[in-house]
Amino acid sequence: MMTTCRWKLLTGSCMITIGVLLLLICTWLPQFRKIVLLSGVLIPMGLVVIVLSLITTRYGKKTEFVEDERTLNIRAHTYMKAFSFSLLVVCVLFILVWLKLLVIDAGMALLVVFLTMGLSSSLLFWYYYRQGDINKN
Amino acid sequence: MKPRYLYQIIIGLVLIVSGFVVIPVTNGESFFPAGLEGAGFALLVNGIIRHRRYGDEPDSDERSKKIGAYGLSYAWMTGLLFMTALLWLDYADVLVLGTRNALAASVLVLALSAVVYQAWLFRKGDVGI
Asked: Which of its termini does chain B have fewer beta carbons within 10 Å around, N or C?
């Protein structure tokens, strides 16, 4: 079983590798500047993830937070509800675009869905955590 | 028969009949009858299959609810990763998709991954934590 620190190190390394690979092949791809910008975001982000995980492991306090059955239940139900809500939003957007009631470009539509997914999961997790446990009914 | 299954079968039949009634009204130029018939057929088949499988027994227990929740959680994560990749590919002009295609792809990935994860977890027996 990999620890959280190792996962973070692996994620950081992958981000740096992808960033470097994109830099190497950027001349073959369209939109050279955007690819360079993407690499310029990925490489520092990977470095930040690696450095932060190393610092936390070396100097961070050992937290008492243990993932018990209740927390896992809350997390699973949070993502379940967030999934349903996001699917609904995507379907509504699709129908609106299909009926030409809403004119929006693909990037913006994806960004709306992306933000909906993130916000709904955060809000639901906060709500369920405050409530204490999942109401089974 | 459980009332829920009976309602599903009745609503399914009503939708199918409505679909056939609407065809001459729209002169076959609209997708609306096909949508009605599709939804009706799905409800009808679902009601019949569930009645045959479960009858008057409870159709979900603690384990199946847990598997359902975890399957949808994994599907949410997959959808988020897919949309992030799609967003970046669109931004970098590597993959240029129309709005309709991008949203349709997102719906497909979300729905199919949920089905696949739930089937996989049911096959596995339980959620391994």
From this structure: C
**Burial classification of residue B47, based on how many CB atoms lie within 10 Å of its CB (0-12 exposed, 13-18 middle, 19 or more buried):** buried
Q: Which residue has the tokens 């959808």?
A: B79
Give the pLDDT confidence of A124-137 residue by residue, as tens digits.
Answer: 888 888 887 776 55
In sequence order, what are the residues at sequence separation of 6 or more whose Cβ sits closer than 8 angstroms to the Cβ of residue B18?
Answer: B36, B40
- What is the ipTM for the molecules in this complex? 0.72
Q: CA-nearest residue of chain A to B92?
A: A34
Contact A39, B91 (CB under 8 A): no
CB pairs under 8 A between A and B: 96
pTM beyond cutoff 0.80? no
The model's pLDDT over A6-15, given as tens digits with 9 standing for 90+, comes to 888 888 888 8
C-alpha distance from B101 to closest chain A C-alpha (Å): 8
Q: Which residues between 47 and 76 in chain B have a beta carbon less than 8 angstroms from any beta carbon of chain A?
A: 66, 68-70, 72-73, 75-76
With beta carbons under 8 A apart, name residues in chain B contacting A90.
Answer: 103, 106-107, 110
